[in-house]
Amino acid sequence: MADLPKLTGRLAGFEDTIDKTRDKREDLYKWFHQNPELSMQEFATSQRIEEVLTAIGYTVTAVGKTGKVGVLKNGEGPVVCFRADFDALPISEATGLEYSADPALNRMHACGHDMHTTALLGAAEALAQHKDLWSGTFIALFQPGEETGAGAVDMAQAGLAEKIVKPDVVLGQHVGPWIDDYGVGALSGPVFSTCVQTKITIFGRGSHGSMPQHGIDPVVLAAKVIMSLQTIISRNIDPQEMGVVTVGAVHGGDSPNTIPDSVELKVSTRAFTQEVSDKLNGDIKRIVQGECAIAGCDREPTFEVIGGAPVFSNHEEPTEKVMAVFREQFGKRAGNFGRLSGSEDFPTIAEAWGVPYFYWAVGSKKEMEGAPANHSPLFAPDLDPVLDHSTRTILAAVSPWLMP
């Protein structure tokens, strides 16, 4: 076992469960890892989560397409919700692990959601086995579809706030190579960026490739648009602000000697504030429409928002409470990982109830340098010690409310 601190003081009683369930939790993690399911298609994963929660004494409620929420009431006291996501990505695994997902599936847990899920199930079992150590209500919330931004919205729209008791706070964590030595922590304020994903369709006029004068070439037009979009950050956004514009996909035409009728672009934006996000997406629309007008297109371009994530800003009070416990329990490993330009739909869960939230990182590797990043086909947290460590962080995090 790696040399990481065990829980101490009022939390030390959970250590026997962590020790006794280690083999079971590792087997469960490997099952999730070897059976990845894409966003909003996680039917087997969802069923396995429900089976585990039921077996350890939780009341389980289905919320949305595949979301599951386990509730354990243990006397009077605060209500704390912890959220874990459980969808995989359309990536072929190349880790070489003995429990690797079959590369032929072209699906893998390249973002650590299998670790998030197993850690929460482990913490949920520890709480169920040690009701003498805490009082209140614990909500173990398992959310699908984080990678597409559809899962949290699906649960909120399916009546999460009506079906599940309102918590006092919502907590969550994410594993990744962001803090050396398996560090843990975050900070209040903006942590992840807001994201808007848009499908843009540019309509030209089809023609034979040898007679371009009879058409309006949307491929050339798309190239102009892509280059023009690069000026938004450098010339339209305050250098003190964070903004990212990414054209992640371009599709148009099937033949080398045909000018197609249309080209489709898929674009994403990132920002730490709603104001900058609105500015980015307004400028994208203005540039696309302008270039299409200059080219003389017969049809206006269309814009369809296909995904995204909300503004993500940790609330100060729960941040201070949890970080104080992390410093107490994990010493020098407790800190923060700065701000990330990636996005998360986690706030949507807390906002369904209108309650504060805190979300932190757990280091997935001993050293960040050279470690495969999330969404890499090589990404894999170190099973030992990250599974135990991320289980302990959940138990530590809920303690200010459930074990004051």
From TrEMBL:
Gene3D superfamilies from the UniProt entry: 3.30.70.360, Zn peptidases
Pfam families (UniProt xref): M20_dimer (PF07687), Peptidase_M20 (PF01546)
Domain Peptidase M20 dimerisation: 199-290
Alphabetized InterPro entries for the sequence: Amidohydrolase, Bact_exopeptidase_dim_dom, Peptidase_M20, Peptidase_M20_dimer
Transmembrane segment boundaries: none
Descriptive protein name: Amidohydrolase
Lineage of source species: Bacteria, Bacillati, Actinomycetota, Actinomycetes, Mycobacteriales
